[in-house]
Structures are given as structure tokens and as C-alpha cells.
Amino acid sequence: MNDPLTQRMVFLTGLLVLAGVAGALLSPHFLQGSTVGYLLQYVPVLGVLGMAQTLVMLSGGPGIDLSVGATMSLVGLAIAAMFGAGVPLLLACAAGLVIGGLLGAVNAVLVCVLKVPSLMGTLATFFAYSGLALALTGGAPIGGIPDWFAGLAQGRFLGIPVHMWVVFVPLAVVLHVMLSRTRIGSHIYAAGNDERAAFLSGVKVWRLRFGLYCLSGVIAGLAAIMTLSWFQAARPDAGEGMELLSVTVAVLGGAHIFGGIGRISGTVLAVLIVTTLQVALQLANISQAWQLAAIGVLLICSVMADNAVGDRLRAAARRAAS
């Protein structure tokens, strides 16, 4: 319990319990068994975007990717358009992941090569990708997705949505292992903690961050595939608001905005907290405006808690890196 990162996990677990208690008090329907499946339906899309945001933040810079929601929308439209043009759906999905990586590479060029601050660079691509999605469709969704594809997001295995099993959980495990057990993970933390020291020790910092922005785009492509399965259509506004929610999940989960501190497990707990709170407020028929306000208050409390222990977290991370 003396480890600040462990304390953060305990703090998040406590928040999750409190969110569950609040849900039970707000609505008698919250404790029904069907609520679990309904709640977990929302977790994978926001969860994978939160993981992508966490990776970008961890590498420092400071880094942020405000285009993940717009990337998700644009990739979904590209997949649906390719399928409508006769490309097999699974092949179109694979091509969508490549397109996501290319859209992420645009961010990488802006931030890592042209040295545009990540906030401004990814905000610019957010507007560009969102505008392109609307311009190409006129704001109308692209349908025609076959019924069998709905099984990914709408199907259930042991009462849990299939995309939890085949996308969210595997991605979380792979990224956790990458960050905690591999050289790439140690390089990410090193770059986030002290960019100059990492560079002097042989870490290609700009190349590392370039790759993470590309990976963020690929993960946004995964989110697009899940959304396409869920809605059975590609919507130009599918990712609307997801960029800020993904930042909320990453920061709430313990990712330091200046890099070097954070865990995928924290992001997983954070997305469960946010989703539990959202579902509880929906079941209580509380308006969307108040839902957003509640998430904002939660984020403020998280940032205050992060500031209270931030110095201890950074000191512990530096000791671990050395």
C-alpha cells in the first residue's frame, strides 16, 4: 500500500464501488441482472479509445490525441463505403485498420516531425476528419451492413457482449504486457519521464511517439468496427464526444498529462467507473446535460487527487526506471 500506483488503483476501485452504490440508490432497475450486459455494451468502444489515449499520454511530449473520435467516424464510413462498392466486409475491416493507422500517421507527422504541439495538431485533424466525414455523407449514415456482422457487438457469450471477449479484453491484456514486460514499454515510460535522459540512453523518442500516434489510429479503427457492428450502419457522428471522454478515462485512470505515469489497468477501471455512472443516470432518467456535468465533476476530483499524489507518483516512476 506504500506504492502510489497501488494506492491509485485502490482509489479507483473505491470510486467504482461508489458509482455502483449511487446507481442502486438512483434506480431500482440498476441491480437487475440484465443491467450488467447493458452496461458492458458501452465499455469496449470507449475503453479501447481510452487505451489509445493512455498510450499517447504515457510517452510524454506532452501528448494527446483529440482526433480519435473523428478517426473512428471516418474509418467506419470508409469500411461501409468499401463494402458497398463490393469489397468483402472482413477485408474492408482490415483495410479500415490500415486507414486508421494512416490517419494516425498524419497526427504523427504534425506532432513528431513538424513539431506542432499535440493539442493544436490533433485538434486540427479532429476538425479535418469530422468535416470530411460530414462532407462525404451529407450527414446521412451509410447502411447495408449484413445482419451476421451484428454478432460482434450485439451478440452475447455467457451474458457478456462478444466484443468484450474478442476485442476489449485481448487488447487490454496485450497493451498491459507491452507496457509492463517489454523493452518498448520501458522506453515509453522513460520517454514520458525524462525525454532527454531517454534520448541519451538510446531511445528514439520521436520514432516511438510517431508509432504510438499510428497505433492510436489503428485502435480507433477497432472502435469503428465495433460501432459499425453495433449500429449496423456507419454514422458520420459516431465518434462525437468520444475524444473528450477518452481523455477523461485516461486521466481518471491515472495517466499523467505530461507522461511517464499510468497503467492500462487504471484505464480499464476508469472506463468501468464512467460507464457505470452513465448507465445509472440513464436508468434514473436524468438528462444528458446532467450526465456530462457529473462526469466533469468526476474528472475534476480525479485531477485534484492526481495533483495531491503526483509528485510521489513521478518520483516512484523515476526510481523504477532507474
Give the number of DSSP strands: 2
Mean pLDDT: 88
Termini gap: 21 Å
Taking the sheet with the most strands, its summary is:
2 strands, antiparallel
Specify the overall morphology.
globular
Overall number of domains: 1
Tell me the strand order in the biggest sheet.
1-2
Q: Total helix count? A: 13
InterPro entries: ABC_transp_permease
Organism: Palleronia salina
Subcellular location: Cell membrane
Protein name: Ribose transport system permease protein
Task: Output the keywords.
single chain; 322 residues; ABC transporter involved in vitamin B12 uptake, BtuC; two-stranded antiparallel ribbon; 2 strands; 75% helix
Describe the protein's architecture and organization:
InterPro entries: ABC_transp_permease. The chain crosses the membrane at residues 39-59, 66-83, 89-114, 126-145, 157-179, 210-232, 244-261, 268-284, 290-309. It is a multi-pass membrane protein. GO terms for molecular function: transmembrane transporter activity. Its main location: membrane. The protein has 13 helices and two strands. A two-stranded antiparallel ribbon has the order 1-2. By secondary structure, the chain is mostly helical. The protein has a single domain (33-321), classed as ABC transporter involved in vitamin B12 uptake, BtuC, CATH 1.10.3470. The chain is globular and about 55 Å long. The protein has helices spanning 4-26, 34-58, 68-84, 89-113, 118-137, 151-154, 162-181, 183-193, 195-200, 205-231, 242-252, 264-283, 288-321; strands at 156-157, 160-161. α2 packs across α11 and α4 packs antiparallel against α5 (118-137). The mean pLDDT is 88. Helices cover 75% and strands 1% of the residues.
